[in-house]
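Quick start: read one record
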Amino acid sequence: MNTAIIIDCSAIFYQVISRICGYNGKNIKNVVESGRKYLTLEKEQKSFLQDMHNEFDSLNKYSAMLNTTGIYFAFDSVNAPSFRFHVYPEYKKSKSRSKEQVYDKVIFKKLIGEYCDVLRENGFKVIEWDGIEADDIFFEFKKIIPDHTNIGIITPDSDIDQLLDHRTFIYNPVNYVTKVSSDFRMGGTYSNETGETDEFDFFFGNSQNHTLDTNYERFFSNKTVVCPKSSLFKKIIIGDDMDNIPSFFRYRTKTGKSEFAFTKDRYKQFEAKYPECVNLSMLNDDEQFLDLLSKFSDIVGRDLDTGRLEEYKYKKDFNVSMIDLSESGKYHKQSPELLGIIHDQVRKPEVNFGVVTFYERDSEIY
């Protein structure tokens, strides 16, 4: 079974620089300051880019045993904001994000642009388009790759879980977890040191004729089964904090003075009490949607405010348009151009991954 690997370069960039600067989820101010000092020095920029390339080189080596048909590099739009900012100006804006943090992102953006240019110059399969995010690229990418080829998406981003299916898996290079759907297929062959070819199932390890090496183990030993439709349903209901997309269902306190969102904890209660309602069809039919809102109200201990029904419908449709990748294409309307770029990259020949040396580049980022 052949596999096409596509890497979420922008997301991995942020993960690596956070690790370098010692970000632990709380010390954002220190990370911003150390990141600025680290990344404004030309020597450190070159060092960081080289470290990033080495990181991707290791992913390339891990993926080699998957009968890889190509390694693709997907980037969020480098030169223009996402089309989602035009639809929703508050997209990705957080109340906790300081001016320094925004500046920090600007530094990252310039470095990402530099790395994207380097890969293009060296003939790598780069997919990037003005106004389009890597998430949208993954969705369109699946249309191009033939069905007999599996797809591996390398990203730490859970937004992509909705794309899991019988031939698509997601590998998180940060925690080494591989996500698959329950119907995922991944058979293949592996040649051991003596040259014997052995057929096996990548995820359930039925091979008897050889010992699996560390590359295999890192990619597939730590796996988890995810339902893509349930994952998408949950995102639409509770929103996405990282992208500043709120839950569409909000309820008032008994005094009516304050309002609360339907949180992750509330969703867990709903999922446990009404598992039969965790279904995307509940969002598409007016009668079922009303029933869904009634169950949300039951979870939070309130009577359903039917006067807000149209508001809930509007906000639900908005969340679908921002989160469901099959719907977002209606907004950016660039699928034909993007599919053309992907086609061009698929046809390009593979190049030696380890050829780039950033210390030899004369270009200035600033």
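The longest helix spans residues 99-121.
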